[in-house]
Automatic annotation (TrEMBL):
Flavinylated by SdhE, about 5% flavinylation occurs in the absence of SdhE. Pathway: Carbohydrate metabolism; tricarboxylic acid cycle; fumarate from succinate (bacterial route): step 1/1. It is a peripheral membrane protein. The keyword Oxidoreductase applies. This is Succinate dehydrogenase flavoprotein subunit. Pfam families: FAD_binding_2 (PF00890), Succ_DH_flav_C (PF02910). It comes from endosymbiont of Ridgeia piscesae. The active site is at residue 292. Its cofactor is FAD. It is found in: Cell inner membrane.
Length: 593
């Protein structure tokens, strides 16, 4: 059967908040836009976001975008690019009002304004009050946002390919991106989508780390396998700052489901086995609302020093029971459900056992504040790849630098999803025709799919997948050293060799999820190597990257972004953009909370 083809102005890979916000911008501008998602759009991981989205609306405390910018630069441990951070913080209020008009049912204050709660890393020093910057729809904010955006896209007539798996980007000889080869999961047939522009919005890669062991868990959906990042790598594009992976301080111990930072924002706090509020020792001012890297390391240290709770002293407790039943019911109904379902406890009357859990990737596809994918060209300035864009968790703009603040990712995906949409509209005005696609430009993508038609005995996907996760957690976790990561790289090289021997037991076509899992595992392998290589190279501690052998931040040598290229596992570096757009730069200072 010949390969089916479809043509669109614009192709968007991913139907999370980033993909849907971009699609809406394009559909409203009357571009023909296709959105491809490997799951039904409203099952994208954005749906799981709990706590909220940051914007300096000043509904609860004094606030403005400049303070938000300062907190974000400080939170990033000065690795964030300040032009992009300024752009995002300035855009935030309008983005939230826009959501409200799309139908997001934000929680309300008595006076009818949007409810805002304090979150980690938000400054405290304005008149001594804690800033309350995180706009929330109870603790189901992502759910509300994703459903509203999906409905708006249906109204605007965006074309959806639900349950289609993107395999690879298609590039011509000049490096222009012409669309993507995708797989119809239901029929098992490939489909070629040709487009004048392609936006990668495929989300994060939390599945690098294990689920369901006592001490190693992640909060991410099973679909978060970094597919778009790996597609970029195979197209010769590097990944930026992959050594920075965020561990969220409060996953349910031994299980990993997230308990939102909003629980601490509402007044919850952590205690150790002695009943002590230990965060007072690590972050005397911000205490439980210090940034996530700081709180996660503090919990890990308490446990390592023997002050963990429970028979195995392997977790700490998060108390919200003192807040009263009414606050828990009104502001934290989702985490109450989660605790009842998975722990059989009611957090309104009992503390929650928690432990840090793998949560968010700060690194990703290098992009700028217009959503364009940018790559270094010789010694000159970086250049945008024609027709290719990236937004959301898979992109590295870089807003979050070495550590993301809670509530800033929902903002990031919306601001830069929208910005990418606008940039694409401009590009489409100047590039009105599809470029010709030669058969040879399809070969690599087709081969990648056909490789899984080989049946027979061999290594198994699930075995390799759990070996990969074990290597990541034991060689690239919260605390890192040279020797351990060096061994980790060797272990990954061995896994790569074994990957060539993997075979599927089931070679049928119709809804063959084994084939999809195999393609996802290949993607995770490359991302694991990017993460480990960049982590081994960075000889300092900054944000989420904590080196036992290099405990200090080193601005004179390491205030720079890493770039990992798949070809020859090569690493390069590029400078941080320290100049904002209109205000003065925030120079690096010691980071204390
Ligand atoms: C439990 C949890 C709670 C969170 N809470 C908050 C919060 O309160 N505030 C905050 O700011 N941030 C929060 N975050 C982070 C934030 O939700 C995510 O970073 C963000 O939603 C990612 O959005 P996205 O659009 O980039 O990707 P996603 O929402 O992950 O969507 C990715 C899309 O790509 C598609 N896709 C991926 N690979 C393929 C492929 N190969 N082919 C086809 N489609 C593909 C998927 O189907 C999906 O549609 C939370 C994260 C988690 C895990």
């Amino acid at each position: 059967m010949s390969l089916q083809r479809r043509h669109f102005d614009s192709l968007i890979l991913g139907a999370g908040g980033a993909g849907l916000r971009a699609a809406l911008q394009l559909a409203e501008a009357e571009a023909r836009v296709a959105v491809v998602s490997k799951v039904f759009p409203t099952r994208s991981h954005t749906v799981a976001a709990q706590g909220g989205v940051n914007a300096a609306l000043a509904n609860v405390s004094a606030d403005n975008w400049h303070w938000h910018m300062y907190d974000t630069v400080k939170g990033s441990d000065y690795l964030g690019d300040q032009d992009a951070i300024e752009y995002m913080c300035r855009a935030a209020s309008n983005i939230v009002y826009e959501l409200e008009h799309y139908g997001v049912p934000f929680s309300r204050l008595e006076n009818g304004r949007i409810y805002q709660r304090p979150f980690g890393g938000q400054s405290q020093n304005f008149g001594g009050d804690q800033a309350s910057r995180t706009c929330a729809a109870a603790d189901r904010t992502g759910h509300a946002i994703l459903h509203s955006l999906y409905q708006q896209n249906i109204r605007a007539k965006t074309h959806f390919f639900d349950e289609y798996f993107a395999i690879d980007l298609i590039r011509d000889a000049e490096g222009v991106i012409l669309g993507a080869l995708v797989l119809d999961i239901a029929s098992g047939e490939p489909l070629l989508i040709e487009a004048k522009t392609t936006l990668i919005a495929t989300g994060g890669c939390g599945q690098l780390f294990r689920t369901n062991t006592n001490t190693n868990t992640n909060t991410n959906a099973h679909i978060n396998t970094g597919d778009g990042m790996a597609m970029a790598l195979r197209a010769g594009i590097p990944l930026q700052d992959m050594e920075f992976f965020q561990f969220h301080p409060t996953g349910i111990a031994g299980k990993g489901m997230l308990i939102t930072e909003g629980a601490r924002g509402e007044g919850g706090y952590l205690i150790n086995a002695e009943g002590e509020r230990f965060m007072e020792r690590y972050a005397p001012n911000a205490r439980d609302l210090a940034s996530r890297d700081v709180v996660s390391r503090s919990i890990a240290t308490e446990i390592r020093e023997g002050r963990g709770c429970g028979p195995d002293k392997d977790h700490v407790l998060l108390k919200v029971d003192h807040l009263g039943e009414a606050v828990v019911a009104k502001r934290l109904p989702g985490i109450r459900d989660t605790c009842r379902t998975f722990l059989h406890i009611d957090p309104a009357s009992e503390p929650i056992p928690v432990f840090p859990t793998a949560h968010y990737v700060m690194g990703g596809i290098p992009s700028n504040r217009f959503g364009e994918v940018v790559v270094p060209v010789g010694e000159g300035p970086e250049e945008a790849i024609p027709g290719l864009y990236a937004a959301g968790e898979c992109a590295c703009v870089s807003i979050h630098g070495a550590n993301r603040l809670g509530g800033n990712s929902l903002l990031d995906i919306l601001v830069f999803g929208r910005a990418a949409g606008n940039r694409i509209i401009d590009y489409l005005k100047q590039n009105r025709f599809h470029r010709p696609m030669s058969e040879s430009s399809l070969e690599a993508a087709m081969a990648r799919l056909q490789r899984w038609d080989q049946a027979g005995d061999g290594e198994r996907v699930d075995q390799l997948s759990s070996d990969l996760k074990r290597v990541m957690e034991s060689h690239c976790g919260v605390f890192r050293t040279e020797q351990v990561m060096h061994e980790g790289i060797e272990a990954l090289q061995q896994l790569r060799r074994r990957m060539a021997e993997v075979r599927l037991n089931d070679s049928s076509k119709v809804f063959n999820t084994a084939r999809v899992e195999a393609l996802e595992l290949e993607n995770l392998m490359d991302i694991a190597m990017a993460t480990m290589m960049a982590a081994e190279a960075r000889q300092e501690s900054r944000g989420a990257h904590s080196r036992v052998d290099y405990p200090e931040r080193d601005d004179s040598n390491w205030l720079k972004h890493s770039l990992y290229f798949l070809q020859d596992d090569q690493l390069e570096f590029k400078p941080v953009r320290t100049n904002p757009l209109s205000v003065e730069s925030f120079p690096p200072k010691p980071r204390v909370y």
